Amino acid sequence: MVVERRSKGAFDGFCAQLLERNRALVREMLTEGRLAGEGLIDRRAVQAALGAPSPPADTVARLLALADVESWTQSWCSRQPAVR
Description:
- The protein is mainly α.
- The chain has five helices and no strands.
- The N and C termini lie far apart (61 Å).
C-alpha cells in the first residue's frame, strides 16, 4: 500500500486528530487561560469553534496555534524570578 501511494497525506488531517484527542484540554487552556483572562482572545468564539463537530482546517490550525501560545505563556509566567 505504501509503495503504491502516489501522494502524501495532508497535514491538516493530523492536526484535526490532534485537536480531537485533546479537545477538552484545549478548551480548558483557551477558555480559562491567561490569553482569555487578559481579553486577548474571545472565549465565546473559542467555545463555538470547539463545539463544532468537525471544524474547518483553518479553524483547527488557529486553535492549535492559540493553544501553543497559551502553553508558552503559562510556562513563561510560572518561572520563578532569578535569585540575586
